[in-house]
Amino acid sequence: MTNSDPSLLFFEVRTIICIMSGITLLLALTHLYAWFLRRRDRWSAFWGLGNLLASIGLALVSLRGYIPYILTISISQTAIVAGIFLNWLGLRSFNEKPPIRPWCWLLFPTIFAALEINSPISDAMSHRMTLIASLLSVISILIINELFAIQKSRGLQITRFITLLFVLFVLGNIVRVITMWVHPVHHLSRLPSPIVGFTLAGTLALMTAWNMGFMMLSAERLQNALMLAANTDGLTGVMNRNAFEAAVRRQLAANLNPRSRSARSSPPASVPIGEAGGAILHDALLTIDIDEFKQVNDQYGHEAGDALLRLFAATAQNSLRSTDCLGRRGGDEFTIFLKGVDEAGATRIAERLRKSFTSSSQHDPQIGRPSTLSIGIMMIHADNSSLESLLAQADAAMYQAKGQGKDRVMLAGSGA
User: Fold this and answer.
1) Cα(115)–Cα(134) distance, rounded to whole angstroms?
2) Helix, strand, coil % (nearest 5) of the chain?
3) How many CA atoms lie within 13 A of 415 on its CB side?
4) pLDDT tens track for 41-83
5) What stretches of 183-301 show up as alpha helix (H) in DSSP?
């Protein structure tokens, strides 16, 4: 029977550090390549440089005993801390915050290096470990705060996963400091190899995981941007035709729900007083056309026409409620879906929009003349009405408004 030493199951500490350096270098190259492909994504450059510094620092640590002490301890640890600091700068860039002045980048590692190289702190391992863990924890807390800001402003879900990783990293540093002061040692070699091995392996796992999280963060942001571009009109910023029609179809399908029908006897909280006067509320579909839009393009140029379209979109968004939908069908035609209104309420909203747009266009320096709207309204009474039929009837009312002199609101089927 062969006797086996349990300690052989653990990697040598130097081997683990070399593995950490190699993996961190690969992560650095991945981020830098991503930045090379999309130069506008400066945050990838920060993350790549941060991992590159950390990889260099770990490589120096692995060479302890072969190169000068100052390189394997002070310079290496300064590089690792500076690398984590660049991760924070990358998140600030990702969140489109103003860049920090370059001298601030140098101030932080310079102070740390001064404390490491020539101070009483550098004489005791417990002091040095406390300094490193404290600085890493402070930077990690800054990163967590930035992740919360990204989640709040952009709604990216992967931030929760990355936040958890940095919380674990902070807790690990706290435990390391407590352990160091409860059981002080004067040299890293005095620590049991399994303890050092597990600590380094855990740190490697966290570093790899949060770097993968950074990549997923960029991917989620890009995916959201592509989805927004696919559903948004590039000129006005409102829904494009496909997105608007899809949203209205979902609402029409939801109206088939018995609970939805029973809830329509009272207006939603977002409906202003006076917008719904009837006992039973319905939905309404509006089609809007900007009168004499072609003449604006011919007389003032296409820039003025584009400005007029943007002005209408802004005016409409200010006139509508949070429950309403606005979309551009194409050219100078727009559609609006009003939720929970009666005929009088829909007409009031349309009239408010018409008057507000005429007033705004008259005072716009790019247009310099009042522009008017022709609006057709189709009330949605039947649960099984198709969107195509509703749009056709709203269009007919809108063309009827144009035929009667433009600059007016016409209710489908009313003749007035």
Assistant:
1) 13
2) 65, 10, 25
3) 0
4) 999 999 999 999 999 999 998 888 788 877 877 788 888 888 9
5) 193-231, 241-254, 258-262, 293-300
